[in-house]
Amino acid sequence: MTVNIDLLGVYLLPNMLDGDYTVIVTPKYVAYGCFQPSVLVVAGADVLEFNMAPLPVALLQSGPPMAWYYSLVSRRILALDEIEFAATSLVMVGQNDMQDGESSRMVLVGPACLRCAELFGVVTQVEWSVSPSTDASIEVERGMVTISDGAPVGSKFTVTADVGAFVVTKSVTVYSAEENPLVGIWTGLDTDNVNRLVTTSSGEFAVTVNPYGNYQDYWGFYTFDVATGDVELTADGANQVAPDGQGTGTFIINAAGNLVLESICLGKWDALTQSLIKNCEHEFQRLP
Length: 288
What we know:
Elements: E1 3-6, E2 10-16, E3 19-26, E4 38-43, E5 77-79, H1 86-89, E6 91-93, E7 97-98, E8 103-105, E9 107-110, E10 120-123, E11 127-131, E12 136-138, E13 144-147, E14 156-162, E15 167-174, E16 184-188, E17 196-199, E18 204-208, E19 218-224, E20 230-238, E21 248-253, E22 259-265, E23 268-270, E24 275-277, E25 280-286
Parallel strand pairs: 5-10, 7-15
Antiparallel strand pairs: 1-2, 2-3, 3-4, 6-9, 8-13, 9-10, 11-14, 12-13, 14-15, 16-17, 16-25, 17-18, 18-19, 19-20, 20-21, 21-22, 22-25, 23-24
């Protein structure tokens, strides 16, 4: 049994074959999910590096905006004073990419504790605003953002939630589904396939095969050509990747509105080996 003997990340592993181990975990944040700590063995033989996910990077004000796509799934709510270090751990979730004429409600969320991964809605007095106010408006009491009809593609707006002691902000970008049909949150139709594919108007993507909390497997940037259907996904960070991955191929949006990737191998979860394995050809359904 592993015993946590220090809140800062010192662990005792007793009754091992070569005696007791003292392990120090030094966290390092990575984009779009969890951090993969370095493991230093102070006493004993080598211990394999392992993954932990006590704090999603989405909770960090400096975290990547793509991680803020995640919707609130729990019905539990917290008061502002129940959020540890609220000024830095409170975040705003809602759509990052919106089309003209579209509306999306922004919600303040936070963790029950500093190392808790689950996000809960926060109940507090909030004054909402959006700037610039040209081509965008917001309901000051509900945080419902509306992009005006005809708002230029590429326009950027800053949504601000003022809770008195501090403010929380996020950026919203106007895009066109006709110009970039890949933007969105997608889920694989095959339950053994990719659970979540997130793509943004700024050219970011993230893949989650076997999800828990805000964890994501790997992420990076993508390029595409609407005329030819060519697409290329290039990963530049990962918690784990599937072997023999292939990011270059083609895409189509079929009659059902699903995203079909051909000649692209994003991987899938293998329950027997508890790891990612090679898997190609993917079809995704857009999540609302």
